[in-house]
Amino acid sequence: MKYEDIPEHLILNYEALKIVLFEEVKSLFMDRPHVLSKWSSLAYQMTKEEILNQKPTDDMRSFGVLISLFTEAFFHQKPITKEMIKDVVSSSGDTIKAFITGHLHQEFPEVEVKYSFNDNKIEEALEKDYILSSTNMDFHLMRDMVTKKNDFKEGEAGYLATEIIDNRGNVKGVAELRPHELQTELTIEQQVWLETLGETLNSLDDLTADLFDLISYLWLTQPKSSDGYIEFHSNDALRLRNIKKRSFAGKEFDYREEDRFNIMRRVAALSSIWVSLGDQTIKIVNTEGLQDSELYKFKDFQKMFEIGKIRIAYDKNTGEAKGIYAVQVRPTSILTPYLEGPKKTLGILDLKVFKYSHTSQRAHKRLTRYLNLQWRIRTVRNTLGQPFKVGTLLKEMDFSSRYTGVALRDKFENTLDDLQADGVIKKWMYLDELDEEMVGKRNWVKEYWSKLNVHILPADYIVKENRKILSSQPVTNKRLIETSIAQSAADIELVPSGHSMAIQSAKDSQEPIALTPEKMKEALEFLNISIRQAAEEIGIAHTTLSRYIKRENKRQNKKNDEKMLNWLKQKLN
Fold first, then answer.
1. Distance separating alpha carbons of residues 298 and 308, to the nearest angstrom
2. 359 φ/ψ sector (left φ>0, alpha ψ -120 to 50, else beta)
3. What local confidence, expressed as pLDDT, does residue 322 receive?
4. pLDDT at 30 over 60
């Protein structure tokens, strides 16, 4: 029997059903030739048992599950036609693939270990160029904590520990690196996992923060097991990071084992971090004479992430374990309130944060995360035009102390230029005209440059998507979000640290804007709007605005000056 000879509206018998299902569903599994090869054979052949019983046999495995999915779940033993199958595949292709994939991993373990359950979700993220991330400040602080291995010092309990401190200097909690609890008898998978845990401290960096975000996103959006786990595959991160696969003679192979190991050892590090958040926030005023334990009161420690089953690839020839390819993982109750509970405030995280190098472009990663957090907060507060202090951005970028003076300024400006060129931000510029005569003087970074204001405009799509997220929230949720955002905004009062000792609080960043032709011209260039459009918004003739910018007005008009100044304040504050 040929597929082409089967009419659209014919009620299918068992033999025809197998053929139609295979031909219609195979487009969903074109990336799995090993599956299609076996399915094709099963679809076009009838065993004696099938002829007798007119139903799949047990040894058909995943293909039998596919048949039952349609006959039982989709159509409940009702008559089925080719047209009906086409409609279901068209509307529920992702569901079909997700359901069958779990069975493929059991049937073809040696091959399927290289495939991720999350392929469709990763593909969707790549198409959108963003994922969702929590914009709660506590979540941000915990994510930032995993990037700073040098902050971990040996604590009283013998573990490496660090304080989680907000930007006001308040201790919000404590994090500890704890070794894995050893069992008397370990499976091969557990032994390999323990070996991966060996480099825990050295695995804390900005790539680890990427995985913190990615695992949280997948847990938020993907189906979970009965005990709350999702499967994270090393492919998920390698694809987002745009890591190239091995190739030889023009033929592409798999990812390097070293690249997979670099991902999984950081997942292992995340699973080794235990966090305790305080019952109350206690500001450190004067610690002299106090014991560490007297500074704050904390709840019990909890792991940030728990690990379940582990998937390992084995060498076909020797049978030896090659490495961990995937793990079941779930965030614990220390994180879940920020993803699905009362503290849930989601915003856009630009996917380019994953593509920047965690070694040579660390500042790019850190600033992208910080700005995406800010865009969500400022969307709610309608303050997207509010400037940033140079010192505030320096603290977030956290440049190495070896960069000072002009070299530090160059790194700062080059990073912002790169973010603009990559579309992470729309535009940036100094709000205050840079006085080059101040550059190079004694303490010029601290006393002058770090106090300057910088305007950064978000990419249009980020504003659009954040507003879409906000508008989709119920009214009660919006109020909770606004309360949480207000708290997050308040937390962005920074304490002296490193290069940014002159950082002011958010309230102090509002400096008077002076009306000058140069300032008006800069504003039009920064906002990328025409004189005619600006004049219409201001409420004056475009010829009047044009003459003002060119300094061609013979008389000063106080009313027009007031209108222009108010417009500048509205756009730039």
1. 27
2. alpha
3. 74
4. yes
What is the distance between the alpha carbons of residues 282 and 173, in angstroms, rounded to a whole number? 10
Dihedral in degrees, nearest 10, Cα atoms 26, 31, 32, 38: 30
Tokens of 268: 């292992």
Reading the block at residue 549, the tokens are 């910018």
Please measure the distance between the N-terminal and C-terminal CA atoms of the chain and give it in whole angstroms: 72
Nearest to 382 by CA among 505, 228, 489: 489
Alpha helices in 289-388 (DSSP H): 352-355, 362-381
321: left (phi over 0), alpha (psi -120 to 50) or beta: beta
Q: How many Cβ atoms from other residues are within 10 Å of residue 521's Cβ? A: 14
**542-549 and 558-572 helices cross at what angle (nearest 10)?**
80
Residue 129: how many other CB atoms lie within 10 Å: 13
Q: Nearest 5 degrees, angle CA 147-CA 148-CA 150?
A: 150
**Alpha-helix residue ranges (DSSP H) falling in 129-205:** 137-145, 188-196
For residue 232, the one-letter residue type is F
Cα gap 393→391, rounded to integer Å: 5
Type of residue found at 281:
T
pTM of the model: 0.77
Asked if 220 and 337 touch (Cβ cutoff 8 Å), the reply is no
Better pLDDT: 205 or 504? 205
- Other C-beta atoms closer than 10 Å to the C-beta of 362 total 20
Q: Encode pLDDT of 517-555 as tens digits.
A: 888 888 887 777 888 888 988 998 888 888 888 887 767
pLDDT digits over 201-210, tens only?
888 999 999 9
Q: Let me know: does 171 contact 499? Beta carbons within 8 Å.
A: no
CB 405 within 8 A of CB 440: yes
Q: What are phi and psi of 252, to 5 degrees?
A: -90, 135
d(CA 374, CA 8): 54
b/e sequence 61-93, b meaning 16+ C-beta within 10 Å: bbbbbbbebbbeebeeeeebbbebbeebbeeee
**Amino acid code (one letter) for 373:** L
Q: How many CB atoms lie under 10 A from the CB of residue 280?
A: 8
Phi, psi of 159 (to 5 degrees): -90, 155
For residue 120, give the nearest of 95, 87, 138 by alpha carbon: 95
Tokens standing for residue 216: 């949280």
Euclidean distance between CA atoms 363 and 396, whole angstroms: 8
- Cβ atoms of 192 and 324 within 8 Å: the answer is yes
User: What is the 8-class DSSP label of residue 70?
Assistant: I
Residue (of 62, 72, 73) closest to 101 by Cα position: 62
**Average pLDDT of the chain?**
85
The residue type at 568: L
